[in-house]
Every structure is written in structure tokens, then in C-alpha cells.
Amino acid sequence: MKKNVLALFGALLLCAQAVWAEPILKVEKLADGIFALIGPTGGRLYENYGLNANFGVIDTPDGTILIDSGASAAAARLLETEARKLTGKPVKWVINTGVQDHRWLGNGYFAAQGAEIIALQRTTVSQQKLGRAQIEALSGVLREQLQDTRPTVAERPQPGDSAHLTLAGRTLEIRYFADAHFAGDVVVWLPQEKILFTGDHIYVDRMLGILPESNAETWLAAFDQAIALQPARIVPGHGRVCDVAQAQRETGDYLRFLVSGTRKFAEDMAGVDAAVGALKDAPDFRHLKNFDELHRGNINRAYLRFEAAQ
Ligand SMILES: [Zn+2]
């Protein structure tokens, strides 16, 4: 009897957890029919479907515009469900802001439903180079969530450095400034509402990551140009919706610190250890989540790129 009561209690607890569990993506309304889906700032996990990033949903009379498609077919399905809750319509267009897995590996899922994938040509070129390796790298974490996930790029990529789109009455601009987190990263700018979806150009609340594919120096140049649009609201690639001041403090100032610091050591050929030793404390940025995991590696990679250019 006692055992049964315990089992019942356990079952109730599980139900309560399921009901109260935090959603993976938090919705923030930015304007009429324009929403940000804010993912967790931690790492890629099976539990979060690799959706540790932000996405955009824009309603139009003809269907939904989705900004970025998630890191797998399963993640794309979850984004589709969230988007439909907000607009009541299927995803008709997917715009890619970049090349990292969570920006585009869900494209194939949406293309199979008849959605049009929209990206600049320079973005698709990088995606094609990295797609297979990205799926391979995710396989240990996302396991069967990657089933039916095939690297799929826009069928008719847009040439040049920008694309002006009018989709069922919504005006959007895709703008490329410089290679950033990855080569071919872009922003999506809504000039009427002054809302900027930055993809991986801007991280707030957490430390950004300089990857082997990243170029801190050109990323900083791209950041400055994105900010020059004077957005009223910024949907960063990672972290909460923010304003220019927070983006400046947590991405722009950090990139500037990293670039000017490591460049000086590389020009003096002082060695990577000296650069790490001098720059590792960075008190202005210590409060950012993942600082301990990422900051030293960021110095390392930024330094090595300058050293290689010497
Ligand atoms: Zn990212």
C-alpha cells in the first residue's frame, strides 16, 4: 500500500514537472506580428534540441517568415510549432542569418514543406563547405534528432552584399558587412520597425565564441556597421533582446579589447602565452556567462590569426 502511495506521488511529481518545465524558447513580442524566440544561453544539449540560440517569427497575410531554421530537422519541427502558435500560419519563407549549425540545418525540413529558403550567395557558399562536418559534430549530442537532417541551402541564393525583400507586405533587408563568427554571416534589418535580427554578430548575457572559422577583426568591423543602422530593438544571436548600449558593452567592447590586445602582442611576436597572460583577467567581461570556458580560447584564436598574418 505504502509503495503504491509512493508510486502515485512520484507520478504526480513527474506530471507537475512536465507542466511546469521551462519552455526551451521564450517568446518576446517586438511589434505587431514580429516576435523573437529566445533560446537558452548554455551549450547545445539533447534536451534543448541544440536550440541554444535566438530566432525570429514574422507574421504576414500569406504565411510566416522564420528567421533561422534550427540545428536539425527535429529542432525545425519545434520551431514550426512555436511559430504556428504565434501566427496560426505555416512557415512560407526561411531567411538564414548565417552559417553556424543552428542558423540553417533545419532548412531541409522547411524546404520539404514547400517553404522558400532565402540567403545570400556568400552565406550558402560557406554553408555548403561546412554542412557535413557540422552534422557529424552534432551527432554525439543530438543523436536521433538529426534523422532526416540534410544540409540544404537556398535554391536561388541572392548575389551581392544585400537583398531587399518585400514578402506579403513586410519589408526586410539582408545585409552582409564582413565575415564575422563565420564567413558569410548577415543580419536581417526591418527598416520600418527599426528591429535588427543580428544572427551570430551579437551575443549578450553570455561570452561570445571565437571559433577557428571566426575572424575577430572583421567581426568587429561588421559589428560597428550593424550598430550604425541605429536599431531600436536588437535580437542578438544569443542572449535576451537588447539595445545598442548593451550590445556595445558585451560584444563590441569585448571584440575591441580582444582585437587591440592580441594585435599588439602578435606585432611584437611576443607569443600566445604572453597574450593570454596579459589579457586573461578582463574584469569588464567576467560577468558574462561562459567566461571561464571561452575567454582564454578566444584570446588564443584571435592571437593566432594575427600571428599568421604577420
Ligand atoms: Zn550561434
TrEMBL record:
<keyword id="KW-0732">Signal</keyword>
<feature type="signal peptide">
    <location>
        <begin position="1"/>
        <end position="21"/>
    </location>
</feature>
<dbReference type="Pfam" id="PF00753">
    <property type="entry name" value="Lactamase_B"/>
</dbReference>
<feature type="domain" description="Metallo-beta-lactamase">
    <location>
        <begin position="52"/>
        <end position="238"/>
    </location>
</feature>
<dbReference type="GO" id="GO:0016787">
    <property type="term" value="F:hydrolase activity"/>
</dbReference>
<keyword id="KW-0378">Hydrolase</keyword>
<comment type="similarity">
    <text>Belongs to the metallo-beta-lactamase superfamily. Class-B beta-lactamase family.</text>
</comment>
<dbReference type="InterPro" id="IPR050855">
    <property type="entry name" value="NDM-1-like"/>
</dbReference>
<dbReference type="InterPro" id="IPR036866">
    <property type="entry name" value="RibonucZ/Hydroxyglut_hydro"/>
</dbReference>
<dbReference type="InterPro" id="IPR001279">
    <property type="entry name" value="Metallo-B-lactamas"/>
</dbReference>
<protein>
    <submittedName>
        <fullName>MBL fold metallo-hydrolase</fullName>
    </submittedName>
</protein>
<dbReference type="GO" id="GO:0017001">
    <property type="term" value="P:antibiotic catabolic process"/>
</dbReference>
